[in-house]
Design brief:
7 strands; alpha+beta; two-stranded antiparallel sheet; 2 domains; three-stranded antiparallel sheet; 5 helices
Length: 129
């Protein structure tokens, strides 16, 4: 029999034996939510539908391509824009996605003097790259 170790109402491990000090359940206690993830059947927050796609999300790659192709900002210039912001450097390098309301985008918009409409255009067009 497989046991599922539970921490903070999340299934964190699947094993053939129980770990001391943890809550354990069996497969009969697990249901798949509408979002495709698995939940404890007792969880009152199981989504019934998949989440709607976020139209205000792009990848760092899409951001970089748009900034280069449309605004002519090279990788070196982009590095200079974030030279004093270590968190921004990390996000550009490792983030899987960047939301329109991300402080990094707000900072770019200010430094590049982009208004809200220009940022919306950036996201709409960058999604196509």
């Amino acid at each position: 029999m497989n046991y599922y170790t539970v921490t903070d109402n999340k299934i964190v491990m699947n094993s053939s034996f129980k770990y001391d000090g943890y809550t354990h359940i069996t497969q009969e206690n697990i249901v798949r939510g509408g979002d495709g993830f698995f939940y404890l059947e007792s969880d009152p927050n199981i989504p019934s539908q998949p989440p709607q796609p976020d139209n205000e999300v792009i990848s760092p790659r899409q951001l970089r391509l748009y900034l280069f192709r449309v605004l002519g900002i090279t990788g070196e210039q982009l590095s200079e824009l974030v030279a004093d912001n270590e968190a921004a450097k990390i996000e550009l390098e490792y983030a899987g996605e960047i939301h329109k309301q991300n402080p990094l985008i707000v900072e770019f918009a200010q430094k590049l003097e982009l208004d809200e409409e220009a940022v919306t255009t950036l996201f709409n067009h960058a999604k196509e790259l």
